[in-house]
Specification:
It is a single chain. 28% of the residues lie in helices and 25% in strands. It is an alpha/beta fold. The model has no long low-confidence stretch (mean pLDDT 94). The chain has helices at 34-39, 47-54, 90-102, 119-129, 153-166, 249-256, 277-288, 309-316, 327-338, 345-352, and strands at 5-15, 20-22, 28-30, 62-67, 70-83, 109-113, 130-131, 136-140, 172-176, 179-182, 187-188, 197-198, 206-208, 212-214, 229-230, 238-242, 262-267, 292-297, 320-321. Strands 4-5-1-6-8-9-10-13-14 form a nine-stranded mixed sheet, with helices on both faces. A four-stranded parallel sheet has the order 16-17-18-19. A two-stranded antiparallel ribbon has the order 2-3. It has ten helices and 19 strands. Helix 4 runs parallel beside helix 9 and helix 6 (249-256) runs parallel beside helix 7 (277-288). It has two domains: 5-230, L-asparaginase, N-terminal domain (Rossmann fold, 3-Layer(aba) Sandwich), CATH 3.40.50.1170; 238-352, Rossmann fold (3-Layer(aba) Sandwich). Its EC number is 3.5.1.1. InterPro entries: Asp/glu_Ase-like_sf, Asparaginase/glutaminase-like, Asparaginase/glutaminase_AS1, Asparaginase_C, L-asparaginase_C, L-asparaginase_I, L-asparaginase_N, L-asparaginase_N_sf. Residues 9-217 form the L-asparaginase N-terminal domain.
């Protein structure tokens, strides 16, 4: 085996469809049988190769596979309890981030397995919590459990391992349906397609066809030699408010008068809001009280800009343009920025409009 390069990957398995089985009522629920299934999936675990490396001293949660000239040894850290992604919260994000932080020097790359519904929130949040990242972190899941004969779970997991082990990508990515995305640029747009994720405002980072491709020209370029660290000083006292034709001033006021520190405001088109005087005054009062409000378009493609009077009003009263940021990235960036207690309000606002992890394209 001397001709092979050996890489080690830590896999954090939080739950999700990828490892679910049907219960007695015929619905999918988290299962603890995932590791056993990996042992019996030759593409994901080569038993004879594992014996060459570990003899009889192999632990139950360590697996070995091979991709071209690289042997990938990976350990699965299975969380208890396993969660449907609908139950993922800030505590799970912190746990994932801290587990990667504690093992950062031990492994060449990292894969996070979770459910698809909140997968892009996790990827976006990790991208901000990880400062000075210079290793590959891939977040993935599946639309069909690995226990089904026809599934997307095996390929999503296997290629996430390959990207995490073989390539040095200094950012948090999402791999799904043969495509590699920047994590904080990704949204889930379908619950029926195997290509369930898209990055409408940024290029693919890679894709898998007959060959494995990595488009290095679109990767983040590390700008610092500082040591990697996890910043978990997060202020989660934020909310999302979406404009729609039935919004009233009272509904908006009830959101903004709940002693929150930040709001992601989902608006129409290029960042437009109703020009109702009461609504404008409520937003203006909120900004003047110190609440950071970020304007994000409901359109998955495009950017916020003051093309129309209904959008220019937002800028005029101090609402921050989110440019082409996703809702998930805006929310997780906001809780990250608000966590800097040593920064002034103006500094936090400047930080919100600064491209920190490749999450926005400023005009």
């Amino acid at each position: 085996m001397s001709d092979y390069i050996t890489k080690e990957v830590l896999v954090i398995y939080t739950g999700g469809t990828i490892g679910m089985t049907e219960n007695e009522e015929g619905v999918l629920t988290p299962s603890n049988e995932f590791i056993e299934r990996i042992k019996n999936t030759p593409d994901l675990h080569d038993e004879s190769l594992a014996r060459e490396y570990f003899n009889e001293n192999m632990e139950d949660n360590i697996f070995v596979t091979r991709s071209n000239g690289t042997v990938i040894i990976y350990r699965i850290n299975e969380y208890k309890p396993l969660l449907d992604s609908s139950n993922m919260s800030l505590e799970e994000w912190k746990r994932i981030a801290n587990d990667i932080g504690e093992n950062y020097e031990k492994y060449d790359g990292f894969v996070v397995l979770q459910g698809t519904d909140t997968l892009t929130y996790t990827a976006s949040n990790l991208s901000f919590m990880f400062e000075n990242l210079d290793k590959t972190v891939i977040v993935t899941g599946a639309q069909i459990p690995i226990f089904e004969k026809r599934n997307d779970a095996k390929d999503n997991f296997l290629m996430s391992l390959v990207y995490a082990a073989v390539y040095q990508i200094p950012e948090v990515c999402v791999y799904f349906g043969n495509e590699l995305f920047r994590g904080n640029r990704t949204i889930k747009f379908s619950n029926t397609l195997l290509k369930a994720f898209k990055s409408h405002n940024y290029n693919l980072l890679g894709e898998v066809n007959i060959d494995v491709h990595l488009y290095e020209e679109y990767l983040l370029k590390p700008m610092t030699l500082n040591k990697f660290k996890v910043n978990s000083n997060i202020n989660a006292n934020v909310d999302i408010f979406k404009f729609h034709p039935l919004v009233t001033p009272d509904k908006l006021e009830s959101c903004l008068k709940s002693n929150i520190d930040g709001v992601v405001l989902i608006t129409y088109g290029a960042g437009n809001i109703p020009t109702n005087e009461k609504i404008i005054q409520i937003l203006k009062d909120a900004v003047e009280s110190g609440i950071i409000i970020v304007n994000v378009s409901e359109c998955p493609h495009g950017t916020v800009n003051p093309t129309y009077e209904a959008g220019k009003i937002c800028k005029d009263i101090g609402i921050l343009p989110g440019f082409d940021i996703t809702t998930e990235a805006a929310l997780t960036k906001l809780i990250y920025v608000l966590g800097f207690k040593n920064l002034s309000l103006d500094e936090k606002k400047t930080m919100m409009m600064t491209n920190l992890r490749g999450e926005i394209t400023k005009p």
